[in-house]
Amino acid sequence: MDVHWEEAGWERLTGRAGRRRLPVWDCTVGLVVGDDSVLLVDPGSCVREGAQVRAEAERLTGRRVTHIAFTHGHFDHVLGAAAFSGAEVYGAVGLAALLSSDRDGLRADAVRHGLAPAEAAEAVDLLVAPGHPVSGEWTLELGGVQVLLANVGPGHTGHDLAVFVPGEREVVFCGDLVEESGEPLAGPDAVPGQWPAALDRLLSLGGDDALYVPGHGAVVGADFVRAQRATLAARFGVSGA
Question: Could you tell me if 8 and 56 are in contact, meaning their C-beta atoms sit under 8 angstroms apart?
């Protein structure tokens, strides 16, 4: 384990990838460090939090964040993006249109979950929508590592994106398709009937030995994802569990 990352409050997963569990909502942000570029997975819940993540990422890597991937469109995973000027932003196809058309709903959801109204309004006003829609898979060359962005949903939402990082041990950033710190949240924008299939796609990406990084909670293995898949299938009456 790299003490430098630990001292900064980050968890080093592999030589190329790490993550941080942010306070309040326990939302995970991921970092993938290439020789030429740096990818951030989910930028936090507001501009202030995004700026903190940006500063920490720059200290850890010595470079600015060049790419951002949204795992889905909930406020705690997207509203920090305005702090990353010039970054290329990726999301599942259709997410940009959703974020642009429902800014009032996004702001209200953030406030309902406890974000200060002024911070929610600022972040939504400055919201950066994905400029690169991912309909199937998209390979990002970061220099020394090729990261795969995979549109594996719908499930937790209608626009779920996973990030696969190869290496000495594969890492899969799952967004809220997988949650370890509590029951998976199925809100009004969830697609429960297709959620187990989305987890099957995650498992096919990572395999048995990968590290699966939930949107909230501790890093888990494939057995945890399979168990959560079975629980969701039973909960939502999906056949083939």
Answer: yes
